[in-house]
Amino acid sequence: MNRVLKVALATAIALVTLVTASLAAERMIIVMDGSGSMWGQIDGRPKLEIARDTVKDVLSRLPPDRELGLIAYGHREKGNCGDIELMVPAAKGTSGAVLEAVQSMRFLGKTPLTEAVRQAAEALRYTEEEATVVLVTDGLETCEADPCALGKELANAGLKFTAHVVGFGLSEEEGAAVACLAENTGGRYFDADDAGALADALNQVVLAEKAPLKPAAATPPKATISAPATAAIASTIEAIWTGPQHAEDYLEIVPSGEMSASSGSRNYAYAAQGSPARLLVPAKAGDYLIRYIWSSPEGRTVLATAPLQVTDSEFAIAVPPDPIQMGSVASLAWKGPNGPGDYLAIFPVGNRDNGEISYSYVSAGSPLDILVPNVPGDYEISYIVEGSGERRSGITVPLRVIEGEVWLKAPASVRPGAAFSVNWRGPGNNVDYIDIVPDGHTETFGELTYAYVGGPEREPRELAAPEEPGTYAIRYLSEGAGGRRVLASTTLTVDPNAPEAAAQGLVEARFDVPPDFAGTPVTWSAVPLPGQPVAPEAWAMQEPVVGQVSATFEPGTYSVRGDAPDMVFAGEVTISPDGENTFMILPDETLAPAPAQTEGDEPYESIGMGEDTGYFCEDSTPCRHSDAETGLSFLLPAGWHTDFPFVYETAGGARADGPTMSFFGPAKGDAIASVTLNPHQWLSSNGPCEDVAMGVLCRFDTDDPDTLTAFEILRATLSLSPPG
Asked: The whole model's pTM is what?
């Protein structure tokens, strides 16, 4: 027995010696994200601070014989896809140098992660020696490269190459887009959504022994799928399955040629919901696979598949992928015989005895609007064929209704009979309304006064307080399918001594860029978000400035944008009457500064605009433009476009004092908002004009809040400087 133990002990010592030798020989480079998006925050701390502290902690425990290096990207220049630097070559005893390099990084630029990983592999001589790269990124590739293809290329060409990817604060869809880099090289993808998860990920890939990271012959668990071989488009099927049922395992439907375990399919169901899994069939006919995806510590693995042929159908109902709020209107695309009495109907799940809760006739066309119940829960939508002497269900699909965002905000006390504004969030049906009732009133009728919300635009509603002092309730009432229901309420005190309703006083707010961008000239602007009792007036600076800027605003929430020569700073801020109101506006890689443009340019053909289109704002916030020919500059509202500016000139050579230009909003039905600078002829009956620095700005009469806000943005930001 002792001899056996001695032999076993000797064997163990030999194995440890081999593992230690392998571990010491491992050569690794960390590829660190230095892009501007690292200024984004998690739990109130910038991600770059979290990353620096985590790397410091991990490196303090790095074995001295580990060969470690560092490559950074996006940390020296803004907007440069070639900004990739080998800051520390892989060598032993480099923990101090790596830490110092990470601490010195600035976070400025783009995300060329694919090329950075390639350069890291080449620095490790991956075709000659075993090599490992650890990518830490908080964003996706922004330099037109394919990380998935690179993973396959490095795995095929390398002697023994592995890439691990740490997604820092990425969504599930974003993580799937970069996880393939790890999966295609036999590495692991780590989803790190906070400081603790980032530390765990780096501890595992930088400090842990190699064997747990790349199990040589791990046997995956078994799984089976039993499901229909065919199904109609947009229908729902049940797949009976067996498998490990881990928390993040799921079943999905993918095209038959899909090879990656991270497909990004929206036709899925989590295994945690049990067997059978209810899966929504794609709306396009063809050959598909039902797959069981095992989310193991080493990544996603396909454990089982079953073929599925999706066929066209006489009937189909396509439910929007986004959650549907109770009491709202759902827009449903449908396919069916379109008989004169056919309709779509909503029923409680498994209970049709009492008839439908809501319905709409298909004669209104596809997509069809239908009022959903104002009680959250699971329902069914059916296409009902109203035939001659018969009624039948052509197809039935599930419908999930959620509570959504519902609230009221109003003054706590007002004087008797005073008018005041109520901010609200809710389903926003045209028939929904806000009322005032005595305190304790529980009926859905008998209101003292009311105002319809008027649709989903969420503009404040004006109400008049009761004349009798006392305590009252302000309520949001939904007229959703199934009956009238109170969705939210707040207390109102009517008091003769309450403060008079008055315009909100202005307060000062200050904006600045992060310290890493100190010295950058920035042109600032701020636009109030709709749906709040704030005048729709924009604020903008005509010239770029360096350093902190300040201005006065009504309290409220604003979209702030700062345009620098080669990048954009953007964010939403809430300015409060009693707050410090000093805001650091972070860089936004998704927004690009609009270049100056001349009449010879044709940049908008790709989006289907005509040759008369001068400028267009594709961003979600207003875009700054400058016209080199006329010297005209302005902030163009999101979604708006213009024609080319010009200066009127008579046949005798007389020129107008200022340029003329038209601005057009996005289409709303058959209507397109229009604003004109210095129109040649303008009838007063068209609408009002206001003086601006270079002439007059005119708009057609409208009460559309988006158009009014856009007009104020243009009025506040139009400026004229010498051409060129």
From this structure: 0.41
